[in-house]
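Q: Here's a chain of 114 amino acids. Please give me its 3D structure as tokens.
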Amino acid sequence: MERFKSRARRLRESQTSAEAKLWQALRNRQLARWKLRRQHPVDRYVVDFATLDGKLIIEVDGVTHSSSAEIERDKARTEVLEACGFRVLRVSNTDVYENLEGVLELIETSLRFE
């Protein structure tokens, strides 16, 4: 578990610009009442964002997630995370940059049905 915690710390320090932009909108319970964590270990993965009480994981995917190998890897990752009791919401970097309000609305809507 310590290995995952140290990896999460490293990822927090080197987050992508899309993750940083989304984090600024999510941190400090800015999205309704939800407490979100960034680069949080879940099972054998470190997820981009998670709310433990809402049981939702938000993954921000860049262009590298469009190859068939990455799509399969993401599918397997999602299955493991869902087996841990979470719902997984994937958003693209482009959506974060060009439609942040829409992304926030999608997250909030997903949390309403927790």
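Q: Can you summarize the key feature?
A: The beta strands are 37-42, 45-51, 56-61, 87-92.
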